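Project standup — Tuesday

K.O.: blocked on the structure for the chain from last sprint. Re-posting the sequence here as requested.
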Amino acid sequence: MPYWRCCHEYEATCFHHPLACLYILVGIVGFAFHFKELVTRQPDAVMIELTELLALVGGVFMLRAQNWARWLALAWVVFHVIVSLFHPVSELAMHLVLCVVITWVLFRPEGQRYFRNSVRDPV
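H.V.: unblocked you, prediction finished:
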């Protein structure tokens, strides 16, 4: 079945599943990348690793259509926008664009229905 047809028939999952998988990937890769900082007891290493774990948790539970997970995913990217205020403008711009796109995916009408139906699989 072509991808565009899949998106048409299952529009809610068409955008949410790849986004959830991206959060899982970012969480795993980020955790592994920053793990050496944790081992060498760098300042803020624990907080960095916690943010990576939050991305992982948000992605896993977005796949399970848990409404709170989309709010966690949004908070995660907004946090990165705030942190980017203290970095180069290009980094801030990238995080702002990501924040807008992620917000659009998570809170469009299809997303509302996708996460509203999470009662079917409570955690």
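K.O.: great, moving the ticket to review. The radius of gyration is 16 Å. Helices lie at 3-9, 11-39, 45-63, 67-84, 89-107, 109-116.
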